[in-house]
Structures are given as C-alpha cells and as structure tokens.
Inverse folding.
C-alpha cells in the first residue's frame, strides 16, 4: 500500500511540474526610474543589446506613469491595478486636515500593547513568584521537608519582587507598529490564493510584509532605517568648524570628534528611545585609533575590530543599540574612511535592521523568517527600502565616486538575491531594482549642459557612469533571459522616467503673493514673505482663517474647504469649483521671467485622473510641472521662500516627482509582442493576471497589452 501511495505522490509531483512547465514562468523585473528617451537613445547606439533584441521583436513601448509620477504612487498601481485614488497612495506626503501638518503617505506609525501593557510588572511578578515557589516547593516536598510551602515562600517573594522591578524598568508597555496605507489586492495574493507559488523582491509599499498563500516576499520602499527615517547616515569628523547648517535637508548626523590623533572614544547615533523616553536617543560605543603614521584608522565597536586606510570600505559591521540588559536593536552598517589627514572624516552608512535580529512585530518579509534566510544564503544586504545612499552626495559630504561605489555594492547584493530566486520553481517571480532611479537623481546634471550645476570638465566621466547604470540593467535582463524556457514570459518595466531639474517653483510663495494663502501681519506681499518666512517651522505665520488654498507634498493642491479643513473658508459647491478653475487657469498661465517658460505644465482635477477617491484625503488638484522644473523642497513641506523661482544647483539634479507624466515616461519590454503602443501603468495588473490565467478580484480600469488566449 505504501509503495502505491509513493508512486501516486510521485506521479502527482511530475504532473504538477509538467503543468507548471506548460504554463511557463512569469518573471517581472522592475527598474525604478529607467527613462524611455535615454533607453531608446542607447539602444539605437548599440549599448543595450538585450533590451534592443526585445524591442526588435515587438516587445517594447513607452509606459505612461501615474499622476503624479512618483515611485510609491506608480508601484502601488502596478501592485493592485487601482489608480492612485483607489490605492490611497498619491504622494510621498499627505496632510492632516485638522492640523495642516504633513505625514508620510505610504504608512503611518501607531503603537500597540506589548505583552500585558501597563500590567506587565504585576503579571511578571505573579509568574515569577509562582514559578519560583513551585521550583522550590516540589523538590522540598519530594524530600519530605517539613514546612516546604513556607520555606519556598520567601525566595518566591524575592523573585517576584525582582520580576516586578524588571517589568517596571526594563519592559515597555507599548511598542511601535506600522500600518500600510495602500488599498487593493496585490496580484501575487490573487495568484497565491489559486495555488501559484511566487517570490516578490523589494516592490515598494509592501511594508509591513503581509503573508500570502504560496509565496515569499521581501519588503521594499517604506522600510525605515534603524533611526526610523528613510535614511540617515553619519559623518565623524575632527574638524571643529565642519557644519552642514540649514542646508542639511537630508538629515546627515554630524558627530564631532574630540581630537584628530591617538585613541578617540565616541558614539554611533542610534534610534530614538520610543520605548522608555529616557535617554532620548540610544547610542552605541565607537573607539577610533589613529596610526602614528596617520595612514590607517582602527575602529572598534561591539567587540569588532577593523582597520581602514583612506578610501576603503569596512565589511558589514554589527552594531547593538542597548536600551537595557534585556532589550537591544541590532543594526548592520559599513564605514568608509574618507580622509585621515589633516582631519579625520569617517562616513557611516544608514543603519540597516539586521534581518536575523529584528524587533518584535517588525515584519520586513513574509514569512517573517525569510529575510534572515536570505541573509544566510546570499549574504548581508540593505533592509531599508531606500537602500542606495543618496544623502551623502546630496549634501556634498561624499563625492560622486563614493556614491557610485555604494550603488554598485547595493545592486550586487540584490542581484545575488535574484540569482537565488531564478533557480527556484516558483511560477511567478517579481524583482525590483532601484539603482537606475538613484543615479538619475544624482548624475542628471552631467547629462544636461543647461543645468546650473553642469560641469563640462567632469561631464564625460559621469555621463559614462550614467550609461554604465543602464548597461547594468541590460546585463541583468540578459542574465534572466538565459534562464528562460520557451513558455516563460519576461516583462521589464519602470515606474517613470526622468528629466533634468534646473529650476524650482515655490508654489506656496505664489499662493501667498496672490492672496490665496494669507499670512499673519500682512497681505502676502513679497516684503511680508521676506520678513515672516522662518525655515524652522512648517507653515510659518499662515493665517488659516483667511486662506483659500495651500500646497503640500509634491504637487498636491488643497482647497481650504469648510467642514473638511479645521479652519476652512471655502464653501462646497460653486465657490469650491470656481476657485479650482481659477487656480488651474492662473497656475498654467505663469511664466518664468528668466526663461520665458510656463513652469506649470498641467493642473489636473482629481476626478480627471482618479476613478474613485476619498474626497477628504486626496488632493483637490494635482499640479504637474514642465520639463526641467519641479516643485521645491520647501514648498513640499509648507515653506515659502521669498523667491518665486530658484536655480537648482544641488547634486540632486534629476527628478520626476512633480513633472507631467508625458515628460517622464518609463519603459515596458516583454519577450512577447505587445498588442499596442499606448500603455499605462494601470494596464500591467490585468496583463499579469491574464498571463497567470486568473480572474481579477474587482472591476479593473486597465486592459491587457499581451495576448493571453490561444
């Protein structure tokens, strides 16, 4: 009987494999920010042979991104088949209508009770006392000691008292919890519920990782670093005069060293103390020893020693941030010694959560232990969703070469994961790479002679580096192609393209100058803005009781609506609609006097681009900018610089976030002919489900672009 059972199981397994082979695998490669125009240019020049081969076979089209063309927005539509109104992911930032203050749009942080919450000390006392009493009473009773119960009582009371103290001082009552704001059903969940096995690697807006049937997932953009930020590296320097000042928009932590020689004791800035409050931040010890010849620096932290010479990276180092003897957060990070003479400059990457030692409830993979398994199988990797370090080069703390070293190191780790996934048997494989986007942000100024930060002497070097990034993308596609079987389908896409960011538009300044955003103590004239603007505040000196409209985030324009905003002034109905039309007309008519260009390309009413939406959450209008223009950083957070337009001379020189989607089209490749050339991101979801022969969970607006019948 057992023999026949084994034969039956084997036959079923072979049949299942044959069926999977007949259906073929579906492999989807996502490259953030890969631009259509650049890709087409370099394909025509013969630099991207693997992508060119797909295009020549009819498998290429420009891909129209969402409105706005932002990474979390577009990838959420990719994931669920809903437009941004339906996913509720419509910007990096959202506003609270009660306070007008910004919050992270992808997810929100709350708290949840840890163990028994405020009753932890009492419960631990009871558990320890009872357990201690039993551990003593039972052996005493076996040896027939008189008064065994009383003899065990005092030690039990003492043990319980100790547990009460520990519960009061070392055990938190609450711990942070993150809630993903994205709505909709991911296509991999639909597949998993119908028995299709899948692997999903680093798609944005998948944190916290949600378990789903027959699948493994590693979260992407949305996973913070250990300090709770999108990224926060540190610079250790002995230069007492070094200061990034108010230009430090990207939150680099500067640690001043007490001296530049000998042995130096310092600390690695760690996470904020959200468990106990005091001390406000948890640090880890770091000891630096400068060699007498000043040619090497020895680092020691958490029992690890490494010696670095200028220009060298350390291996991955494990750093423990101890809240108390019971609780610690474990991080992985790498140092790079920038210089040692005359002053020390030591750079530390953002602190990554160690996949093998994650805090309770901090789910970066599904199943929860899969992130640790990947680390053991393919080596350490960055867990933060924004993995490539763009902050150091943006603030000119490191140069472009150091930035590109980090790009390469980061990409190689995730490429190793892809190779691991390719040898599996899963029918659906989805893998995301971010390096194309990050290089676009930092190096685009070298591609554009009209950019304020263009440097003709260095341009050829970094134009080649930019091209090399796309060649790496092409190489990854070629490597995957070699693993394909005849029935396998490959889709390669990006969420948006790129453009040069030459000029910034301060939209809230325009709103204030034109009477839509009122300021206390003035009527919103230029001199009032110059006097009242305070870089240290959100919404400096705004009088909401007299304001009609405001912009927050990257392109979101909100009406100060009565009954919705806390201090709304505009009535619903005709007043609201007339104001929207007036704002759209006037914004689109603005001319930059220095260039003669209309910086606002198109103002979309939300109902023009979103089929469904929550009117209390989604912006009333979406402002998109022309090529070479972007809404300023200051405007995104409610700031109002005195100038209406500003040159962008910073290294962060390429962008897409507020640009009209027609300006920043992405790419779409497949190893199957496409049925049409007009393709939107919302069309990917029905195409994927069609290729997997699955019905969508709801009515979809998109339509497939690859024939799935016959």
């Amino acid at each position: 009987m057992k023999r026949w059972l084994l034969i039956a199981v084997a036959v079923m397994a072979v049949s299942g494999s044959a069926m999977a082979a007949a259906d073929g695998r579906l492999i989807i490669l996502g490259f953030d920010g890969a631009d259509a125009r650049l890709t087409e240019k370099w394909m025509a020049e013969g630099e991207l042979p693997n992508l060119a081969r797909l295009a020549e076979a009819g498998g290429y089209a420009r891909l129209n991104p969402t409105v706005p063309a932002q990474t979390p927005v577009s990838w959420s539509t990719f994931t669920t088949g809903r437009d941004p109104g339906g996913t509720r992911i419509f910007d990096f930032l959202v506003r609270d209508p009660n306070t007008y203050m910004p919050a992270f749009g992808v997810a929100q942080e709350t708290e949840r009770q840890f163990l028994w919450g405020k009753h932890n000390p009492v419960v631990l006392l009871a558990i320890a006392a009872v357990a201690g009493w039993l551990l003593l009473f039972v052996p005493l009773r076996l040896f027939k000691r008189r008064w065994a119960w009383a003899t065990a009582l005092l030690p039990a009371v003492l043990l319980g008292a100790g547990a009460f103290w520990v519960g009061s001082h070392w055990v938190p009552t609450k711990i942070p919890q993150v809630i993903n704001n994205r709505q909709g059903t991911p296509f991999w969940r639909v597949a998993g519920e119908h028995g299709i096995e899948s692997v999903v690697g680093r798609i944005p807006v998948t944190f916290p990782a949600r378990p789903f049937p027959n699948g493994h997932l590693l979260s992407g953009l949305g996973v913070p670093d250990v300090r709770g930020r999108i990224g926060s590296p540190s610079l250790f320097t002995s230069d007492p005069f070094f200061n990034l000042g108010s230009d430090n928009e990207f939150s680099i932590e500067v640690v001043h060293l007490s001296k530049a020689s000998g042995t130096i004791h310092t600390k690695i800035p760690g996470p904020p103390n959200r468990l106990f409050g005091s001390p406000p931040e948890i640090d880890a010890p770091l000891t630096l020893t400068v060699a007498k010849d000043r040619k090497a620096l020895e680092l020691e932290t958490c029992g690890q020693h490494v010696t670095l010479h200028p220009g060298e990276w350390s291996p991955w180092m494990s750093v423990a941030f101890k809240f108390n003897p019971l609780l610690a957060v474990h991080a992985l990070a790498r140092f790079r010694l920038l210089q040692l003479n005359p002053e020390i400059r030591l750079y530390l990457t953002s602190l990554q959560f160690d996949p093998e030692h994650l805090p309770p409830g901090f789910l970066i993979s599904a199943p929860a232990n899969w992130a640790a398994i990947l680390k053991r199988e393919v080596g350490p990797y960055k867990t933060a969703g924004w993995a490539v370090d763009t902050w150091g080069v943006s603030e000119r703390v490191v140069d472009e070469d150091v930035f590109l070293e980090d790009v390469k190191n980061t990409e190689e780790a995730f490429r190793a994961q892809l190779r691991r996934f390719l040898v599996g048997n899963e029918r659906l494989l989805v893998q995301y790479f971010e390096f194309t986007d990050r290089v676009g942000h930092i190096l685009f100024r070298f591609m554009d002679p009209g950019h304020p930060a263009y440097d003709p002497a260095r341009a050829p070097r970094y134009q080649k580096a930019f091209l090399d990034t796309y060649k790496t993308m092409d190489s990854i596609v070629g490597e995957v192609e070699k693993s394909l079987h005849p029935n396998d389908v490959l889709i390669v896409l990006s969420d948006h393209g790129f453009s040069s960011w030459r000029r910034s538009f301060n939209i809230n300044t325009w709103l204030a100058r034109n009477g839509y955003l009122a300021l206390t103590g003035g009527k919103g004239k230029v001199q009032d803005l110059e006097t009242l603007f305070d870089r240290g505040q959100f919404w400096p000196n705004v009088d909401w009781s007299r304001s009609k409209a405001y912009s927050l985030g990257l392109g979101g324009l909100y009406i100060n609506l009565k009954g919705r905003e806390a201090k709304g002034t505009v009535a619903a109905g005709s007043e609201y609609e007339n104001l929207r039309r007036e704002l759209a007309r006037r914004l689109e008519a603005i001319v930059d006097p220095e260039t003669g260009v209309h910086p606002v390309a198109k103002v979309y009413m939300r109902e023009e681009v979103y089929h469904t939406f929550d009117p209390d959450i989604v912006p009333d209008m979406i402002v998109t900018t022309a090529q070479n223009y972007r809404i300023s950083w200051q405007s995104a957070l409610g700031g109002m610089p005195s100038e209406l337009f500003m040159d962008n001379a910073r290294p962060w020189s390429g962008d897409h976030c507020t640009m009209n989607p027609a300006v920043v089209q992405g790419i779409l490749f497949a190893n199957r002919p496409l049925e049409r050339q007009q393709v939107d991101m919302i069309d990917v979801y029905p195409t994927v489900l069609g290729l997997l022969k699955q019905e969508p969970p709801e009515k979809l607006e998109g339509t497939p672009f690859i024939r799935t019948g016959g």
Notes: Residues 1-21, 522-536 have pLDDT under 50 and may be disordered. The longest strand covers residues 263-272.
